[in-house]
Amino acid sequence: MNLFIFILGTVIGSFINVCIYRIPRGESIAYPYSRCPQCGYKIAARDLIPILSFLYLRGKCRRCNAKISMRYPLVEFLTGAMFFLAFIKLGFSLDFLSAVTLISSLIVSAFTDLEYQIIPDKVVLTTAVIGLLLNILIHGKDVLYYLMGSVLGGGTIFLIAAFSQGGMGGGDIKLFAAVGLFLGMRLTLLSLLLSFILGATAGIILIVLKLKGIKDAIPFGPFIALGSIASLFAGDKIISWYFLKYAHI
Ligand SMILES: [Zn+2]
């Protein structure tokens, strides 16, 4: 069963790749054929097997030999691995459905932000709607706690964006508001902290290595994704570790 969930994840990952490529271009994600962006070759079903196709084609288009981005197998593997971990932690449940929904949209957002500096409204809005519905189903009356998580996540980034002028944008605000619906107040607060710590650390490393200047904007989406996924999987452990170590409760 675990293997099946991993494979299911890589198939979803393959669809996530389609989303990452097409949504920022305004193309339909439902239109059936994938084509090589170089030569227009209609990619056959046998070349669309997640991860494996990339390996046996050695990362090149079957017809024109154009290089296929490493992003494709990477996203497929990442999605498979996350689905697998979520299944181990949650089993078949609405919580599992909620977790993989959040994970999938965070992966789309992280990569569209990295490649195009865009977190598409379509993705965030769909995520928020599903998040709200699932949380009403799972938590019933306690849904308020998750709505407050949404206000906390979106509101904090909104304030930072308003006062820092640049750096963070509308996409980041909306994405964190959507994350809040899935994680609730406590874990959203942790996600905010983790995202800032990870983003700042990466920023300092990039500047020290002279890969970026002090004034360059670094997309924040990938750090929202990292911080939120860490909170989703290990949030409670991280919080109790922190309090054991530093607060002596
Ligand atoms: Zn080609």
Automatic annotation (TrEMBL):
Q: Which InterPro entries match?
A: Prepilin_IV_endopep_pep, Prepilin_pept_A24_N, Prepilin_peptidase/N-MTase
Q: Where in the cell is it found?
A: Cell membrane
Where in this chain does the record put each Prepilin type IV endopeptidase peptidase domain? 102-203
Q: Residue limits of the Prepilin peptidase A24 N-terminal domain?
A: 7-89
Q: Name one GO cellular component term.
A: plasma membrane
Kindly state a single biological-process term from the GO annotations of this entry.
signal peptide processing
| Primary localisation category | membrane
| Alphabetic keyword roster | Cell membrane, Hydrolase, Membrane, Transmembrane, Transmembrane helix
Enzyme Commission identifier(s): 3.4.23.43
Q: Tell me where the transmembrane regions lie.
A: 6-23, 72-90, 123-138, 144-163, 175-208, 220-244
Q: Name one GO molecular function term.
A: aspartic-type endopeptidase activity
Q: How does it sit in the membrane?
A: Multi-pass membrane protein
Q: Which family does it belong to?
A: Belongs to the peptidase A24 family.
Full protein name: Prepilin peptidase
Source taxonomy lineage? Answer: Bacteria, Bacillati, Bacillota, Clostridia, Thermosediminibacterales
